[in-house]
Design a protein that fits this description.
The chain has 79 residues and is mostly helical. It has 2 domains: 40 residues, no CATH class; 37 residues. The protein contains 3 helices and 2 strands. A two-stranded antiparallel ribbon has the order 1-2. The chain starts with a strand and ends in an 11-residue tail after the last helix.
Length: 79
């Protein structure tokens, strides 16, 4: 969808780890926007069981918004 930007994606200072659950704390402890600059960023749309149509509709809206702003990620062609 896009790429990590070292400035835009940096954690705010100070960042309050106390409000996070254990999984989020672990993820944020290893997050460094400067080291990750340039890596691809994606979006995962998740829905409840048996609501696949809603998930597909939301993903369609995300893709439409990306197309409107020229930001859709091009898939890698593999022969």
């Amino acid at each position: 969808m896009t790429h990590v930007d070292a400035v835009k994606d940096a954690l705010p200072s100070p960042f309050n780890f106390k409000e996070l659950n254990g999984v989020a704390k672990g993820a944020y402890m290893h997050y460094d926007a400067e080291k990750m600059a340039g890596l691809p960023v994606g979006v995962q749309v998740v829905g409840r069981r048996l609501e696949e149509e809603k998930v597909l509709a939301v993903m369609g809206r995300v893709e439409d918004a990306l197309d409107k702003h020229g930001g859709r990620y091009e898939l890698l062609e593999i022969d």
